[in-house]
Amino acid sequence: NNNFETYSLIWLDASVNSKDNIETQAMLRSFINCLQIFENLDQCEQYIQSVSSDDRIVFVVSGSFGQQIIPKIHSLPQIFSIYIYCENQQFHHQWAEQYIKVKSICNQLHELIKRIQYDHCERRQNKSDEPLSMSIFDQNNDYEQSTTGLDGRFLQTQLLIACLVKMKTTPRDKNEFLLQCREIYKDNPKQLKIIDEFEQDYADEYSLWWY
Question: Record's superkingdom (predicted)?
Fold first, then answer.
């Protein structure tokens, strides 16, 4: 799994490689870069089951496949939201309404893009795309206890930050970083353009702006 972002998008549809669907996938990549496509239901389910529970999957599925797979994967923590793309909205609404992760049932691709993009922007604005919360204390310990109740993950994070701050960067580090970014976003022209701009314009005094 080479996804370095919180969200990934999975699309399951027997006609996922049609011209219209491929164009739609390119548009979706502009705001959710990691995209996996499947034509086979069993392979898709197996992949979803293998994804870490800390990841967040935005799942697009056809109506016919949705009827079969949604009951199996709906309760998985990595499944964050589901969008059904189908021709018969009324029919699929009847069985899908019981699943709270189903956010929309669309029969037009432009509606699908608009809804996924809107929901994604809402999550980012509300900062609900953080899969893990961080606390200085272990939630299983009484706050009146001594520092033995400190959360180990919090301390590890603070130590990591301290080490990173002290590290001196080199041109080689930057080049390796750029190579990694270009590999991750190799199918995303919009992000590749930003990476090129970063390579040309980045300076230490602008690090917060780039962040």
Answer: Eukaryota
**What Cα–Cα distance (Å) separates residue 188 from each residue in 4, 35, 62, 197?**
14, 10, 24, 15
Single-letter amino acid code for the residue at 76? L
pTM recorded for the entire structure? 0.64
Buried b (16+ CB within 10 A) or exposed e, 109-119: eeebbebbeeb
Closest CA to 60 of 6, 128, 124, 111: 111
Q: What is the DSSP letter of 81?
A: E
Domains contained in the chain, CATH given: 7-125 (3.40.50.2300), 147-210 (no CATH)
